[in-house]
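User: I'm new to structure prediction. If I give you an amino acid sequence, what do you actually give back? Let's try with this one:
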Amino acid sequence: MTEFAQKYGPWAVVAGASEGIGASLADQLASGDLNLVLIARNGPLLDEVATRAGEEHGVATRAVVQDLTDPDVTARMADATAGLDVGLVIYNAGASDRTTAFLDNEFEYSLKQIKLDCSARPPWPATSDLPCASVAEVASCWWRRLPALRARRPSPCIPR
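Assistant: Good question. You get back a string of structure tokens that encode the predicted 3D arrangement of the chain. For your 160 residues, that looks like this:
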């Protein structure tokens, strides 16, 4: 087991893992010997990321096709991570339609994107008792809540 896995493992959750930054983070975590729960809306791309991580790095993976704005997300994530020692949660969800101007999108679609980018948050905690168990937020406005999160669970691995 790598030193990284000893600090943050044995399981990591990556939301928004089907492409781009999320897929790259999943690959990096797998190369550090962390097993992965990968979450995204795009099932086929998510399965590719999970398969590649398992084959290239020999880690266990769970691919969960889930829209993080759905009302049942908390229950689904609890089921997906049940019994796992999750030491790291990375919330990277927030990608939008990058080909259409915001004002040209349908109103309901735009509201859903605002919910995902600015008001949604990881509906599950890092559950491990490891000293560096952490939640990392990569994109969107959710970062504004990090001081409150730090106050609830101080980590020696996150500078204040």
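You can read the tokens as a compact description of the fold. Here is one thing that stands out. Strands lie at 11-15, 35-40, 61-65, 86-91, 134-137.
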